[in-house]
Amino acid sequence: MWKKWFVIGLAFCFFFTLIGVVQDEASAAAKKYKMVFIVKSMDNPFWNMMLEGAQMAAKDLGLEIKGLAPIKPNNVEEQIRQMEDAITAKMDAIIVVPSDSRGIIPGIEKANRAGIPVFTSNTRAFGGKFIGFAGAPNEEAAYLVSKAFLEMTGGKGNAIVLEGVPGAQTAIDRKTGIDRAIKEFPNVKVLTSQTAKFSRVEGMRVMENLLQQFPKIDLVLCANDEMALGAIEAIDAAKRLKEIKVSGFDGNNDAINSISEGRLVITGAQRPDAQAYWSVLGTYMFLEGYPVPRDIYVPCPPVDKSNVAEYLKRIKK
Amino acid sequence: MNSYLDQLKKLPHAVYLFTGILVLFAILSPHFLSMTNLTNMVLQGSVLLIVSLGMTLVMLSNGIDLSAGALMSLTGMTAGIFLSKEFGLIPALLIGILMGLFAGLLIGFLVARLNFPPFIATFGMMGIFEGTSLFMNKGESLYWKESAFNFIGNGYLLQIPFPIWLAASVFFIVYILLYKTPFGVNVFAVGGHEEGLRLSGVNVKRQKILIYMVSGLLASVGGLLLASRIASGHPTVGIGYEFEAIASSVIGGTSFFGGQGGIIGTVFGALMITLLRNGLNLLGFTTPYQYCAIGLILTVGITLNTLYKR
Amino acid sequence: MGQSKLLSRLIILVLLGLLLSLLSPNFLRWENFLNIVRQAAILNILGIGMTLVILTGGIDLSNGAVLALSSCVSAIYLKEGGPMAIGIGIALAIGLGCGMANGWMTARVLIPPFVITYAMMFFARGLAYIVLQGKIIYGFPKPFRFFGAGHLFTIPTPILLSTAILALVYFFLRYTPFGADLYALGSDEESSRLSGIKTRNRIILAYSLSGILSSFAGIIYMSRLNAAEPVIGEFFPLDAIAAVVIGGTSLAGGEGGVIGTAIGALIITVIINGMNLLGIPSLLQSFALGGVILIMVASQYLSGEFKGLPSFLKPQTIKKG
């Protein structure tokens, strides 16, 4: 009786594994280069859009790209392991979005020793030899978005800053940009600056806590849209959305919708798919022997109620 | 010939499980059996292995240690502080080791003298360790200038990665400790018949404290290795290791209720978990499919294991 | 359940409350109380499911992943505009399915619950990601938001729902033979079976309920977050176990109950609330929570609760298999 069950289980297992293999084999035929694209986590649609952008580039250029993310969100050790596996599998190049700009260095150095080029996407690495970087000018863009936000909302009151993942260069740069903007508005008082790890769930939880702690809040500046959206839910549930204004950064679909609904005030439209595309393109050019610019900055214009319509159109497509 | 079969039967079933999956992956993926990959795999499993050995000791004595992962992060952060202030390699290593011993002492005290249920004691300590790690550098990682410390996680000795040497050495030491010393005999005894042991005059309380100190030490060594691999101290890098360590032990045949099991099984349990991640990566599974596959394979594997036992 | 145990937990809760009201003026506001009980609601429901499983001497590590999976699948359906009842039904069905699988594997194939629920955790979480293809589903219709964000007579819905569930399960455990069976098989599985209790079915029942309750908690959570994403619930198993253990249910099974768990959930939530009101930064909160748990247990020790061997250190009767 049992034998029947575990033969079935075993068969299930086999079948499942074969699916993965077949996928791999089929796509491996006649592709020019094989690359790995490692993002930070699976818990943010931002990374999914990056991988989509990468696959678009792969299709256009005739490449094979495997998209990977750590199982534990933002875990740099797993990213290093994935880089090691890519080295073993003799990939032609590795594109990585470092979860920790310094923690990733051993991984990059391993790839350097194995002679495999590494391209950093969206987030910088602070060491190791990489062939290029493509991403948002985070500090400048966050500054512009925050400045516009403060101008739009009157530039005064009690503010809360929600930061990104500690140690990530994007988080560091955005906080610098946000702080720089706040300094220009002396009537803005920062109650506290805390991390919500770029996550919607964390954003909601931390905001719930802060709402209890501070009876008067006017402004919430978030280093990304996910945290902003989570915070908005918390604020809305506490029925304080009228008095508290929120800003984000990324420009993801939910944020665009939220702006058109009047809940989120402003965001900065990163184009993760574009960043990924440029990363793949840059890597391809390198492999083909062309010189590649050291930094490719992909602009992120602010998006608010006044110009949200064209972004909405793009989503509807 | 019969005695060979008997010998085979004595091996922990985790060995068969592991071999089975190894063969499966070898068939399915061309790269799998390469020396590079196998070395890679053992390298990646070395941290888990070291921590799992400690967890096995604790479980054998009918305990549990949920704080292992947080202790790993804390050790990394502490060593990181020493390294970033350039106090030197040896002090950094020493503080890491002391940290592990001290943590184990604390937990052992709570469990043995204050009779805290191990689950609660280590759950509470987990929070304390985690909070301390986060607090030490405001939630950010700690970095240091080039240091010999990085050799531990990234260096090679006679063509073999150093972590593998480290894990193998730790295994041998723990093996001797567990199977060739009175301490080891008592570990099993505390788990299997604590009352009887107490009546026969052994200081059970002290034994328990010692067990937690050893496992704390092992968790710290794992934490130091981990910090070296990522060349930084990271406040939350260890989260989740405690569960993987428990899983390695259970898959390896160690019972939750103490007295039964052993570290050979744990080695294969830890290797199996690592094997799953590594093999699935090579086979081209994207991360979500890896999750599912791990769940399925674990289930099928442990089913076979359990059924075969009867 | 031991009345004195319950009482001691209540006392701890009250003492905590007193301490916090002295330390922070904001604590004693009605709004804050509502906040606390509302935030405790999801933990409560998960804790109730976990209590059932722990009573049988097992554990359920998959509740967070099952919550995520059932939320994600039903979210797709709800977003397409299907009737709410069916959407909820889908979620509950998934919870039931996963729970039954856990229970069946534990009871019939005799896999240690730690391993099977650990495996289910991976499996369910992976499915949740696959099902949503990396996207997040956002923005549910107003009627659905009632579950997590609505009010009835000024009382937030989650409070009403979790209290109702608490009452139902309490009744189930106390006054039905099924409940009695769960306790019996938790304390001594062998003799329970010999005396005619269908232990296997009861175990499957316990895990199934845990699964359904996880899904139900997911509905409230989804409704509150106004989004479904595969990442939710990563730490829910530990949180639920903490609530159960603080509430006095023994990890070896056979002893304890859901009222204790509810108090345990409240204690945890009050502590977190207190930390927020006192401005303890998020980074330190895990430290403080851990510390408080230890202090609490130490006080229980001093009050004599742990004299002698804790129950699960007693020599085990031979479990079959």
Task: Tell me what the structure shows.
With 317 residues, chain A is of the alpha/beta class. Chain A has 11 helices and 12 strands. In chain A, the strands form 3 sheets. A 6-stranded parallel beta sheet of chain A has the order 2-1-3-4-5-11, sandwiched between helices. A 4-stranded parallel beta sheet of chain A has the order 7-6-8-9, sandwiched between helices. In chain A, helix 5 (138-152) packs parallel to helix 6 and helix 9 (253-260) packs across helix 11 (308-316). The longest helix of chain A has 27 residues, at 2-28. The mean pLDDT of chain A is 88. Chain B has helices spanning 2-10, 13-28, 35-60, 68-84, 89-113, 118-136, 149-154, 162-180, 182-192, 194-199, 204-229, 241-251, 263-282, 287-309; strands spanning 156-157, 160-161. Chain B has a two-stranded antiparallel sheet with strand order 1-2. In chain B, strand 1 (156-157) and strand 2 (160-161) form a beta hairpin. Chain B is globular. Chain C has 13 helices and 4 strands. In chain C, helix 6 packs across helix 10 (199-225) and helix 7 (157-175) packs across helix 8 (177-187). Mean pLDDT of chain C is 84; it is low at 306-321. At the B-C interface, helix 6, helix 12 and helix 14 of B face helix 5, helix 11 and helix 13 of C.
Which short descriptors sum up this protein?
heterotrimer, B: 310 residues, mainly alpha, 1% strand, globular, C: mainly alpha, ABC transporter involved in vitamin B12 uptake, BtuC, two-stranded antiparallel sheet, two-stranded antiparallel ribbon, 13 helices, 4 strands, disordered C terminus
How many DSSP E strands of chain A? 12
| Mean pLDDT metric of chain B | 87
Derived from helix and strand composition plus strand pairing, the structural class of chain A reads: alpha/beta
Largest sheet of chain B: 2 strands, antiparallel
Give the low-confidence spans of chain A: none
Largest protein-protein interface:
B-C, 52 and 51 residues
Average pLDDT of chain A: 88
> Could you estimate the helical fraction of the residues of chain B in percent?
over 70%
Report the β-strand fraction of chain B as a percent range.
under 5%
Question: Regions of chain B with pLDDT < 50 over 5+ consecutive residues?
Answer: none
Span of the ends, CA to CA of chain A:
54 Å
Overall spatial form of chain A: globular
